Amino acid sequence: MTPSTHRVRIAPSPTGGLHVGTARTALFNCAYALNVGGAFVLRIEDTDTNRSEKKWEQDILQGLEWLGIQWDEGVMSDGSQKGGYGPYRQSERREIYATFLQKLLRNNGAFYCWHTKQELQSEQRLQMQKKEPPRHLCSYRDNVAAPKGQSENSIIRLRNDAVDPIIFSDAIRGEVRFQPQLLGDFSIARSENDPLYNFAVVIDDHAMKITDVIRGEDHISNTPKQYLLQKALGIEHPQYAHVPLLLGTDRSKLSKRHGATSINEYRTQGYIADALFNFLALLGWRPQGDQEIMSRQEIVELFSLQDVQTSPAIFDTTKLDWMNGVYIRNLSKQEFTVRALSYLNVPQKTLSQYSQEQLETILGLEQERIKTLQEIQEGVSFMFDLPEYEPSLLWYKESRGEQTQKVLRSLFDQLSLIPEHQWSTAALKALLAESAEKADNKGAIFHPVRVAVSGRRSSPPPFDIMSALGKQESIRRIQVALNKLSRQQL
């Protein structure tokens, strides 16, 4: 694709782990940039020194990299910086902000305000009583010197004299209007070396030549302030596109009570990066057609801001589980085994006793059943270590110890006659089916042998388990069951 002049960015704050909402916005920016042949920039907004931490920066960068979201310039996953418009951490750009703030102050586009916190609160209470929108109309606009005793309590505000409506075109929502009078003289910096969010963002987007700002709907309220700052500084307005909020299934704001909200949590739980990428892409974006399982390449090729909806997107973990299950089942046997082993809590000494083929067979029992890789532990741990169970667990409905013992003894004898080279899923399935047909009761045969070889009421089919365990271990486990039943009858 021919490179374009489009430049987009994601600018997370390292005050917590990579949130699914931030990841979704990053994905949209990445897909858009790749689709139009533009550049995708990642910068770190770490001016909040009290809450910003390097560990969260690493979590964000590594989480995006794990998801497969690639960026062209900015702070890279190893902490280095790449690109010609850096530095890409706001904490390293204070001199740049100071230059623009001084320009605004010299041109009377901004001024120092010395109102105390109590005065501002009093002003706000009065406005609420009059049912007016809360805003600060500063009386210090033309003061050059600080009032006596107030030199340490100043803040810098934008001189807002705008009267005409602020109108901008949103690539997703169409025309958006704001009344500038509702903003008042809003604050833009604590000092010349300590800018607030809106000012720093405007300077960064301008300096880094960002042409398209694709961000969450919660930032719409920041746009008129940024628009006025851009106008005061004489810089161009980028194209805005505000993507819909993420809600839980109860249609409230997505939070911890809905489940995991960070990418690292989903990674730990055994979600596949491709599946989570696919799921996040469809949160608020819907291409033509009903296709839901899509490759990264398909997503990039089809992505368009015109197909992004304005209504909130529902983060449905049930659907994510289904989608992740599809991706798990689409893995090759070898790839599934490699991934599943990293979630299996079995001593290496035990695992070393099995060949690669045996491990693929054992782990493969759950490939069609699990929704996340983390479930592999619960699914196959019994294959490596038969859990303890009560003899009564072997009983099927009204059957008791003597009847169950008879069933298992008959199966033990028949299984013992199968040669090692004929020990297979097909042969075992046929033997159990024949026994069930003779007994005219499938459950009376399948249930006790299932419990005998797994120690559980629920498991993969017993013939699959025995095939994976091998003849020797399968017969040993049935003998364990027979011994339990014998002791129970004493």
From TrEMBL:
Q: Which GO terms describe its molecular function?
A: ATP binding; glutamate-tRNA ligase activity; tRNA binding; zinc ion binding
Please verify whether the record's keywords include Signal. no
Look up the record and give one Gene Ontology term from the biological process aspect.
glutamyl-tRNA aminoacylation
What EC class does the entry list?
Answer: ligase
Q: Name one Pfam family in it.
A: tRNA-synt_1c
Keywords in alphabetical order, please.
Aminoacyl-tRNA synthetase, ATP-binding, Cytoplasm, Ligase, Nucleotide-binding, Protein biosynthesis
Q: Which residues form the Glutamyl/glutaminyl-tRNA synthetase class Ib catalytic domain?
A: 7-322
> In which domain of life is the source organism classified?
Bacteria
Q: Which GO terms describe its cellular component?
A: cytosol
Q: Give the HAMAP family listed for this entry.
A: Glu_tRNA_synth_type1
Job description of the protein? Catalyzes the attachment of glutamate to tRNA(Glu) in a two-step reaction: glutamate is first activated by ATP to form Glu-AMP and then transferred to the acceptor end of tRNA(Glu).
- Could you identify this protein by its name? Glutamate--tRNA ligase
What is the organism of origin for this protein? Candidatus Spechtbacteria bacterium SB0662_bin_43
